[in-house]
Specification:
Blueprint (H helix, E strand, L loop, with lengths): L5 E3 L5 E5 L5 H9 L1 E6 L5 H8 L8 H4 L4 E2 L8 E2 L4 E11 L4 E11 L9 E3 L5 E3 L7 H4 L8
Length: 149
């Protein structure tokens, strides 16, 4: 499934996504209690939009969009080879009132060989923002960054 609304919860490996019963993948997520957050790059934009505009109830998205399943190491859901990064997650909590799914990362993988590294951010109206140059201020913020982050 393509998810537009995600957030990091703090400096722990926890994320939240929002979706709901109308979404076939949400029902699967509720049943299996696990998923992979696969992070695509800008060159995958048309595939991302295609994945988000059809349902897994009707189509095998891996086949239709020529995506390669890679076995995960800590969960049963597959990773996606074509993505820059994959985060294996387990469901911690589902907050039904707002359809918020809290996920805990149990494994993370980056394809260091990928030339394209710019990621996408959905604005929510059919437009996207692409990451640009990375700018570090870790030295100046060191006292505020938790150990291990």
């Amino acid at each position: 499934m393509t998810i537009s609304w995600t957030m990091v919860l703090d400096f722990t490996p926890r994320f939240a996504i929002t979706t709901g019963d109308w979404n076939y993948s949400f029902r699967a997520l509720r049943k299996t209690r696990e998923c992979v957050i696969a992070i695509p790059t800008v060159d995958m934009l048309d595939k991302v939009v295609g994945i988000g505009t059809c349902s897994g109830a009707d189509v095998d998205k891996f086949a239709r969009f020529q995506l390669t399943q890679v076995p995960a190491k800590k969960i049963k859901a597959p990773r996606i080879k074509e993505c820059l990064a994959n985060i294996e997650c387990r469901v911690v909590e589902i907050i039904a009132r707002h359809n918020i799914v809290v996920l805990e990362a149990v494994g993370a993988y980056v394809d260091a060989s990928r030339r394209e590294r710019r990621t996408l951010h959905a604005v929510g109206d059919g437009t996207f923002i692409v990451d640009g140059k990375k700018m570090s201020r870790r030295g100046k913020m060191a006292a505020k960054i938790p150990a291990g982050a």
